[in-house]
Amino acid sequence: MLKREFRPVMREISMDVRSLPDIRKFPQVNTPPDSEPSTKSESASASHPTLTIAIHWMTVVAIVVAVAVMFVRDAVEDRVWRQLLLETHRQLGLLVLLAAGVRIATRLRKGLTDHAPDMAAVMRWAAKAAHVLMYGVLIALPLLGWGVTSAHGVSLAFLGSIPLPKILSADSELADTLTDYHVWLAWGLLGLVVAHVGAAAWHHFVRKDGVLRAMLPKRQSGR
User: What secondary structure, in 3-state letters, does 173-216 show?
Assistant: First the structure.
């Protein structure tokens, strides 16, 4: 008697269990692991201030054009054109001197974001030494050119409208000597620029950090 009454109950329980949805068919929700912001990724994605980027690339353009102008001058025989090209070279040198001063003042005041925080201490020291040396050359080279101009007895005016003082007395022999120093230091700057470009490429392609991207114009760096 009990068996006959118990069977319908068991049959109903079995049907209820079969009607439940299969949990294996539910979509699996993967909970992402807790992620903390990485200092390296943050520094790699940041850019330098717009003023710093603009001055950097303005200096690059001014140096390239100043060097090209002197090569063209050596190939030109017309006196007027030679004088015009020389004056262009002088003005570009003054722009480089001004840009270097602003760049140094900005860096001393606001500092510079470290885009390679995990770099070895020796490499970090070498990078700082190279930057100091390059800033020194960027200041010394235009000053030497200014000295050459003064030693030749030529008055110099920034952008043709702001008269600048003569920093040396007229002396043709001194002018020739300073010209040699100016040329040698220009070749030294070229070597520093080559090393600077190589270091930027190493950071970008080997270390894959944000050193190069931080100095690119924001539109080209994807920001």
Answer: HHHHHHHHHHHHHHHHHHHHHHHHHHHHHHHHHHHCCCHHHHHC
Q: Given its phi and psi angles, is residue 31 left (phi above 0), alpha (psi -120 to 50 degrees) or beta?
A: beta
Q: Does residue 171 fall inside a structural domain?
A: yes
In the chain, the number of structural domains is 1
81 belongs to a structural domain? yes
Q: Would 170 be classed as within a structural domain?
A: yes
Q: What is the CA radius of gyration of the chain?
A: 34
164 three-class SS: strand
Instruction: Give phi and psi for 156, each to the nearest 5.
Output: -120, 135
**CA atoms of 142 and 144, how far apart (whole Å):** 5
Chain segment 105-158, per-residue pLDDT in tens: 988 887 777 777 778 889 889 888 999 999 999 999 999 999 999 999 999 999
Distance CA 141, CA 147 (A): 10
Handedness of CA 94, 68, 129, 167 (dihedral sign): negative
SS3 162: strand
